[in-house]
Specification:
Methylamine Dehydrogenase, Chain H, 4-stranded antiparallel β-sheet, mainly beta, single chain, about 220 residues
């Protein structure tokens, strides 16, 4: 079954039925009608594309990247809907996509157990995380034993966090793609870590696993 992604440009926002003022002597109206968005029936989407598995906006909102199950990664201009770049060389489906906070790097988790780091200005591969042995006692990712599911940049863009199928959460240097540490302790997640997110100040990381467990990790200064 095909999946499609559309970009729509709304025509206007309409607010109706709000009173000019409400005082103790003035009763509020029974009904306030809010029509947050109205789209003309003849409008057409800016962009229509199929076979999309994951997508992500660039921080400035000017680009939208779409990834397919087949590993095709395409970047679109959100104003025109036109393709502006194609990231060739990615193997495996695009499981997760994340832009760095400055928008200069795109991280893409592949279903073949690697994270690709792309230069968004040149559309060239900068580096790749994955492909070397790993255990809970080491600080590298295993192509044989772990699939990466969770992915997130720290707010300052200096670190990447990944969550894996073995329940571990790793921190990586975003510039060098070198491991910093495995922050999970005492087998906190016995199953796949599906989501990781940094707090806005970057001092805390939250991890969620497929069994519904959620943990908050206080990060030491790196």
């Amino acid at each position: 079954m095909r999946k499609y992604i559309y970009l729509w440009m709304p025509f206007f926002i309409m607010l109706m039925g709000l009173p000019q003022s409400v005082t103790e002597d003035t009763a509020a109206p029974d009904v306030t009608t809010l029509n947050p968005m109205s789209i003309d029936s003849q409008d057409v989407p800016i962009l229509k594309t199929d076979n999309v598995w994951r997508f992500a906006y660039a921080p400035d909102g000017k680009r939208l990247v779409c990834g397919s199950v087949q590993g095709r990664i395409i970047v679109y201009d959100t104003a025109s809907g036109q393709e502006v770049a194609r990231l060739d060389g990615h193997t495996g489906g695009a499981r997760k996509l994340a832009y760095s906070p400055d928008g200069k790097t795109l991280a893409c988790v592949s279903s073949e157990r690697s994270v690709y780091l792309w230069d968004t200005e040149t559309a060239k591969l900068r580096s790749k995380i994955g492909g070397v042995p790993i255990t809970r006692e080491t600080t590298s990712i295993s192509a044989e034993n772990q699939r990466i599911w969770g992915l997130a940049y720290s707010p300052d863009g200096r670190m990447l966090a990944t969550g894996g199928s073995d329940g571990s959460v790793y921190l990586w240097d975003a510039e060098t793609a070198k491991p910093i540490s495995n922050i999970t302790k005492r087998n906190a997640h016995p199953v796949t870590v599906t989501t990781v997110r940094f707090s806005p100040d970057g001092k805390t990381l939250v991890s969620e696993s497929s069994d519904g467990r959620l943990f908050l990790w206080r990060l030491s200064s790196q």
